[in-house]
Amino acid sequence: MAFVSSGYNPDKPMEDRITDIGNHHYGEFLPPVIKNNFGKWQWHEILEPGVLMHKAEGGDEVYTVRVGGMRLMSVEFAREICEIADKHCDGYVRFTTRNNIEFMVDSKDKVEPLKQDLMSRKMEGGSYKFPIGGTGAGLTNIIHTQGWIHCHTPATDASGTVKVVMDELFEEFQNMRLPAQLRISMACCLNMCGAVHCSDIAILGYHRKPPMIDDEFLDNLCEIPLAIAACPTAAIKPKKKEITSERTGEKKEVKSVEINVEKCMYCGNCYTMCPSLPLANAEGDGIVLMAGGKVSNRISAPKFSKVVVAFIPNEPPRWPTLAKTIRQIVEAYEKNARKYERLGEWAERIGWEKFFEVTGLEFSHHLIDDFRDPAYYTWRQTSNFKFTEGMNDYAAIKAE
Amino acid sequence: MAFKHETPLLDQLESGPWPSFVSDLKRQATHRKENPDNVEYQIDTDCVEDILGVVELSYKEKEVHWKHGGIVGVFGYGGGVIGRYCDQPEQFPGVAHFHTLRVNQPNGKYYTTDYLRRICDLWDFRGSGVMNMHGSTGDIIFLGTRTEQLEEIFYEMTHKMDQDLGGSGSNLRTPSCCLGESRCEWACYNTQELCYQLTHEYQDELHRPAFPYKFKFKFDGCPNGCVAAIARADMSFLGTWRDNIRIDQEAVKAYVGGELPPNGGAHSGRDWGPFDIQKEVIDRCPTQCMWMEGDQLKINDKECNRCMHCINVMPRALRPGEDKGLSILVGAKAPILDGAQMSSMLVPFMKVEEPYDDIKEVIENIWDWWMEEGKNRERLGELIKRQGFQKLLDMTGLKALAQHVQEPRHNPYIFWREEEVPGGFSQDITDFRKRHQR
C-alpha cells in the first residue's frame, strides 16, 4: 500500500486549514415527506411491530419500518443499508438513539416490498441482518458501549453480551405483548459512557479486584497526585517502595502508591488517570444487573435502576447465566405487571421484597446500599413490609 | 474464507436471530482481502482479521487487550480523537495502532445515502472500515486507524465533506437530540435546530478542552425523554408547554367506542380487554386532573403536570398545548465519581426563540461558575452538590421557586445571609450581660 495524500501538507499544518465547521445541517438529509411536514405531524399509530405511520395535518403519511441495528457496523454493512434505502426510500435513511435503523416510505403500498426485502437478508452465519421490530410495548434494541472490541477499561464485552440477550429475547423485540416498553441498556464499566443507570434493565460490566500497582513504571507514566486525587474513596496514598527492577534486576527505591483495599470500590477511576494501575482480571470481572429505572416522566418521575444481581461471572461467548437471569426478570414482569406499568413501577407497587420473591432472584447483603448519604434513603423507614417465602420470624433470619 | 486467526469462541456468536457483529466483521475482513474495488488501503489490509483475533483472545482470557490511550489528535484540537494501542502488537500488528475518531453526526441522525457512502468510502480507504452507528454520545465513531492518517482524514472531511469532528475529553461533548418536529407530533420545540445552533455556537468549547471535565447537552422534545437527557446530560433540555392540552372530543369518543387502538397501537400484541378510559387514563393520571362529563373528557389543566400519559394513550384525541417551550434541568451524570445523579429543575419554562439568547445566558452563567470553581474531573452535578443549589441560583441569577424542589428541606440548618437578619450577625456581649448575669 502506498501512502496517498489528501492534500494535507504536514510541513504547513495551518495552510488552508478548515476548522470549527461543525456538523451538517440536518435539513440536507430529510426525505421530502419529512421536510414538507416538519412540525406539522398530527398523530401516529404503530400498525404492527416495527411499522409506524405518522399522519400530518395536511393528510400526508410517512410509514417507518424500524429494524434492530448493530451499533458496531462495517462500512460494507452500511453500504447495504444505502442500497436498500436507494431501492425503497429514495435514498434516505435514519438511525435512532437506540441504534435501530429506520427506513421511511411515503405510501402504504411501499411498505410490504420493503419489509420483505429486509427480512429476506441474512448474514452468512445465519442471523438476520435487518430484523423488524422494536416498537411499542415490547423490547427495543439494547444501547451499549464498546467492550473488548475497542475500550481500555471494560470489565466485560458489550457487543457479545448484547447479541446473546437479544437472541434470548428476540420474540419480545418482534412483539408488543409486554405491559409497557422495556429498555435494556449495557455499559462495560462503571464509567458508563453509555449511561445505563436509568434503564428498565441495565447490564453493567464490573471489576471486583483492586488495581495492581506497576511500581517500577508508575512514576514515569503517571502524575501521582492526579492518581491519588482521582480516587473517590481516598484509598490511594503516595508510597516510596524498595523494588527489584524487572529489567536490570537491581534494587532501587521508586516513588509509587499504596492502595487501601478495604476502601477500594474497583471503579477504575485511578486507572483512567494512571495506566500503571490496571484492574482487569478474569475471575474478578463480570456483570452487575440493575433494574427498575426509567427516563420518561410518564405517570411517575424518572427513576434510577437498582442493583438486583450483585455479580454474574463473564461466561463468553454466550453468557448463559446472564441471558437466563434477564429472561427470568422479563417473564415475571410480563406475567405480573399491569398495563402501562414500567418494570420499576411494578416493583414499587408490589414492593421490592416481593420483586425478589416473584422473580426468584436471591437477595444478598451486596444489595443493601452502603455508599455515602443516599444509602440511608434506600433503607426501610416504615413498619410496612410484606412477608415473603422463608421470612417468617427472627429465628428464620438468624445467620447460621 | 480462511482468516489469519482461528475464532472458535466468536464463531458461536454467529448463530441466533439477532444480527451478528461477528458475521459482519468477517464480511468486512473478506471484503478487504478480496478488495473488489482495488482500494489503496491506507492501513493494514488485514486489520479486521486482527480485530477478530484480539477479541477472540479476550473471549478466551476474559481480559481486555487494549492499552490506555496515548496523546494523539489533529492539530489545534484537543478532542475528537482517542488514542488506542493493542497490548499484543506482535500477535496483532494490524491493530497495533488503532485510534478512534468521533465524527459529529447530523442532528436527528437522518442521512442521504450519498453522504453515508462518502463516509463509508473515506473510512474504508483510510481506516479499518469498522465504525459505530452511533456512539453513546451520538457521534459516528470511526474505530481504528494509524496516527499518520488522522490529519489526512480530518483534511478530507473538512475540505471535501464539510464535516467536522465531535468532542472528547474535558470539553463540550457532541450535543445530541431526539428527532423532534421532523417526525413527532409531541415535540414542543425544534430539537434539531436548537442542537445544531448550539453545536455551532460552541465549536471552540467542543474542540478545545478547557473545562474541569466533560459537559453534555441533550435535547428532548417532550417529557417522554427519548434521548434520556434527564439521565445523562449536564444540561438537559426538555420540551413542555404551559397552556391547555388540545382535545378532539370526537376522537375521545372513538377511543371509548373501541374504534381507535389505545396507545397508538403499542399494546396490540396481547388481549388486554376493551379500552377503559376511566381505568387506563383517568385513574392513572398522576395529578387526578381529568374526568368524564357524559361523553366529554374534561381536564383541569391548571393541575396537570404534563407527564404525557393521557396523550401517549390517545394520540389522536389529545395533543400538547400550543404555548410551547422547554424546561432546563442540570447536573445529570453516571455514577463516576460520586454516585449517579439525575438532572434537577433549574428553569421550569422558557420559550425557544432564535437567536436563543436566554438559553445561551443560562449556559454561559453555568460555565463561568463551573470553570471557576469546579475541581479537576468534577461534573456540574457534583459541584452543585458540593456548593449547594442556592449557589447555582446565585450564579445563574435566578429566584428560588417551589418548582425547584420535590419537597422542602428536612432540616432547619439554614445558612442565613447576614443581610437577611435584622442588625446583622454582630452582637454586643457587654450589652447582653447587662440583661443576663453570668
Defining key terms:
heterodimer; A: 400 residues; alpha+beta; five-stranded antiparallel β-sheet; 12 helices; 25% helix; globular; B: 438 residues; 14 strands
Strand order of the largest sheet of chain A: 1-2-3-6-5
Structural class of chain A: alpha+beta
How many helices of chain A? The count is 12
User: What value does the Rg of chain B take, in angstroms?
Assistant: 28 Å
Kindly report how far apart the N and C termini of chain A lie: 69 Å
Can you describe this structure?
The complex is a heterodimer of chains A (400) and B (438). A five-stranded antiparallel β-sheet of chain A has the order 1-2-3-6-5, with helices on one face. In chain A, strands 7-8-11-12 form a four-stranded mixed β-sheet, with helices on one face. In chain A, 51% of the residues are buried. The longest helix of chain A is centred in the last third of the chain and has 17 residues. In chain A, helix 4 packs across helix 9 and helix 10 crosses helix 11. In chain A, strand 2 and strand 3 form a beta hairpin. By secondary structure, chain A is α+β, with helices and mostly antiparallel strands. Chain B is built from 15 helices and 14 strands. In chain B, the strands form four sheets. Chain B has a five-stranded mixed β-sheet with strand order 6-7-8-13-14. In chain B, strands 1-2-5-4 form a four-stranded antiparallel β-sheet, with no helix packed on it. In chain B, 54% of the residues are buried. Chains A and B meet through strand 1, strand 3, strand 4, helix 2 and strand 5 of A and helix 1, helix 2, helix 3, strand 3 and helix 4 of B.
